[in-house]
Each structure stands twice: as C-alpha cells, then as structure tokens.
Design goal:
412 residues; alpha/beta; Molybdenum Cofactor Biosythetic Enzyme, Chain A; Molybdopterin biosynthesis moea protein, domain 2; 4 domains; 8 helices; binds adenosine monophosphate; binds magnesium ion
C-alpha cells in the first residue's frame, strides 16, 4: 500500500498533454490553446469616436462655454460603419456616431450633450481638448502584440478577443477519450428495475459526469461480468481510448479480477491499494499501453478516487497548468475522529461565514452513501497521522465546486 502522495506522483508522471487539434472558437471555452496568439491587426483598426457627438478641430472650440457658445458648420454625417468623405477644415464639424472613424482634420469629439443642432450648424457649449472622446487605433491591442500565451485556458473574453482578431479557429489540446466500464454480476442497466440481489450501475454515470466536468469525452462500455474472460473482452474494446476507467472488482473478494487482468493482459500494474479512505483498493496500470484506473466499486470511493487521481490526469492531458482543486482553510463546526494510517477525504458542506469558511461533515461517511457526495461541496482532508479534529479548529477543505471559491457573495 502506498500513500496518496506517492500514488499521485506515480500516476502523473505517466501522463503528458495529448496532441493538438484545430477547433472552432465556439467550442473553445475552457480549452487550453496550443499556440501563442499574436494580434494580426490593430484593435481598434482606426481612430474612432467614443461618443455620439461632433468631430471637430479642438482649436476651433477654444473658449467655448455654456454662457459663451460658438458655432461650427456641419459638413457631413458619419454613422458607425461609414467613412467620412470630407476633411474637417477651420470652422467645420461632422456629426459622428460612436464607433465611426474620425474624419481627417478632426482631432477631438464634442459630446452631443454639450451641443445643440441648429439646421446646418451646431452650437458648441464646451471647449474641447485635443483627443477628447477619441479611441485611438491600437489602443486595445497593437498589431503583433502577444495577447494570449500558449497553455492558457480560454474564457469567454478570450474567445471574444480571438473573434475580434478574425481567428475563427484555434489550436487546442485534444480532449481525452475516456472509456468507462463497470464490473459486477450484481449490476443492471439504468432502464431495468433491479430484481432482488441486483443494483443499478450508477458508477458509470457519476464517473461519466466527472469526465465531462473535466472537459474530456466519456465512452460508455457498460457492465462487465465478474469473469476474467468478460473483463478481457470489454477491456479489448477500449483500446482506442486515451484512458480506461473501471469501477469495482479491485478488492480482495473472490470475484475481484480487474487487477489480475491488468497484471496478465496488461502486464503493467503500477500499484494497487492506496492509504486513503474512501478509495483504498485503487489499482493503477495499463492495458496494451492504454492507462487504466481500476477504481473501487463503492459509489463514493469511485468518485473520491476519481477526484484525487483521474481528474488531475485528465487535466494534465489537456494541457492545463492548474490541475488540482482549490483548497481552503475552514473552521470545523464539529468534532471528528479517525484512526491513523489512512488519509481521509471527509464529505463536507462548506459555507461562507462572516469572515471565515465554516465546514460541517455530511454525516454518515460510509463509502456506499452516495447521498454524502450529493450533499457535499467539499472534502475535508485529514492526513494519515491525524486522528482527531476538534470543533472550532481550522481544517483543510478541498472544494468540489470552484464557484464557492470564486464567489464572495455566495449566500446559503
Ligand atoms: P466491489 O469493489 O466490486 O467489491 O464493489 C463494492 C461495492 O460497490 C458493492 O456493494 C457493489 O455492489 C458496489 N458497486 C460496484 N460497482 C457499482 C456500480 N457500477 N454502481 C453502483 N454500485 C456499485
Ligand atoms: Mg464487484
């Protein structure tokens, strides 16, 4: 049996980022880009008006005020999208809309609110300074500027920027294809009302959702019987995947064959059993070169070990730099005891108190109590050698929901 830290190290060194592919930026949210983005053009492309108003030579408005207005001749109307035909000369102005290109000769815009239109002339009530209300070419992005670095994950603003630069496609790390299978003679498919002795295969679904949450692609291989030949058959259908996840069949039971199969056809089992709870009987290896996580069958164990080991691996494969969940410090609102020897991940609910996060456990911590994961938004992490948490003391909580960390105003 190895520690969680050793297991993680062994696992992570086996994964590298996958290859790159060209993707449509509309599919890009959350994807990690595989190229530096250099601006192909200035944004904005030309000097333009930041206001609806009048393009003027600032010098022509010198001394203008509410009680001392002056008049300029309107020579043209420039709506957004149109380019001025005339140059602004002494004593002239052009009506201009926000975003329209500043006409030649003008060097300032007077806001509409500081003017009054009077037929073919405009009354100016304020003295403009040079460059007033002008947005300059390249003030947002300068041509050739580095706007995004290879390895950054795309957020909506980045996608808007790519669009502004005319980039409809971008190079990004591929999404891992993750084959998911569940093992167990007791399992039936979701559409079957389980007869006595049988249960619905829920793990394939929670794991598929976790895979999706990581941005990867689940491939459902269904249920395999607790029979070596059946397991081998199913594993063989997963050879096209980037990663295989199985659940169940890794304990010490008479029918727990996953690790044997891994050892025999895979001839590569890196380790079996990790000093953690839930999730001890985890097996990690490969089958014909495809990495395989043999997760425990208990629904909570499967999910928690996915969180600790599979999630960071999938994120690494997609080129992410931050591959771990956020952890926070929180005040534990109850006493908690455990035995030494295992690292514990205790299902918990974190709330934002006045100045601090406060955390309570979800109650029964049995590894079959899936409701403890349904209720939880975090996992209290208790080290191998720790044995008790005293009410009112600080603990480390791994957040399962990143929005809690991001949002300061979250109310419960
Ligand atoms: P195992 O690791 O195969 O001994 O399974 C441990 C426990 O988890 C047993 O109670 C199983 O019935 C349950 N279990 C195994 N696989 C699944 C699954 N796919 N969905 C729900 N429960 C499961
Ligand atoms: Mg089983």
């Amino acid at each position: 049996m190895i520690s969680v830290e050793e297991a993680l190290k062994t696992i992570l060194i086996t994964f590298r980022p996958l290859g790159l592919e060209k993707i449509n930026i509309l599919d890009g949210r959350g994807r990690v880009i595989g190229e530096d983005i250099l601006a192909s053009r200035n944004i904005p492309s030309a000097n333009n008006s930041a206001m609806d108003g009048y393009a003027v030579r600032h010098i022509d408005t010198k001394g203008a005020a509410r009680d001392k207005p002056l008049k300029l001749k309107i020579i043209e109307d420039i709506p957004a999208g149109k380019v001025a035909l005339k140059k602004i000369n002494k004593g002239e102005a052009a009506r201009i809309m926000t975003g329209a290109v500043i006409p030649e000769g003008a060097d300032a815009v007077v806001r509409q609110e500081d003017t009054l239109k009077d037929g073919k002339t405009v009354i100016i009530y304020t003295s403009a300074k040079k460059a007033d209300h002008i947005r300059f070419a390249g003030e947002d992005v300068r041509k050739s500027e580095l706007v995004m670095k290879k390895g950054s994950a795309l957020r909506p603003a980045d996608i808007g920027m790519l669009a502004a630069l005319g980039k409809a496609f971008v190079s990004a790390y591929q999404k891992p294809r993750v084959a998911i299978m569940s093992t167990g003679d007791e399992l039936v498919d979701i559409e079957i009302d389980p007869p006595p002795g049988k249960i619905v295969n829920s793990n394939s679904y929670s794991l598929a959702a976790q895979v999706l949450e990581c941005g990867a692609i689940p491939i459902m291989l269904g249920i395999s019987k607790d029979k070596k030949s059946d397991l081998e058959e199913t594993f063989k259908t997963a050879m096209h995947a980037d990663l295989i996840i199985s659940s169940g069949g890794v304990s010490v039971g008479d029918f727990d064959f996953v690790k044997n199969v891994m050892g025999e056809i895979g001839n590569a089992m890196h380790f079996w059993q990790v000093a953690m709870r839930p999730g001890k009987p985890l097996a990690f290896g490969a089958i014909e070169g495809v990495p395989l996580f043999g997760l425990p069958g208990n629904p909570v164990s499967a999910m928690v070990s996915f969180e600790q080991f599979v999630r960071p691996s999938l994120l690494k494969m997609q080129g992410y730099k931050n591959i771990f969940r956020q952890t926070i410090k929180a005040i534990c609102a109850e006493d908690f005891q455990k035995q030494a020897g295992f690292k514990h991940f205790i299902r918990a609910v974190v709330k934002k108190g006045k100045n601090k996060y406060v955390v309570t456990t979800t109650g029964d911590q049995g590894s079959g109590i899936l409701k403890s994961m349904v209720t939880a938004n975090g996992l209290i992490v208790m080290g191998e050698n720790e044995t008790r948490i005293e009410k009112g003391t600080e603990v480390t909580v791994q957040l399962l929901d990143d929005s809690l960390y991001q949002s300061d105003s979250l109310q419960f």
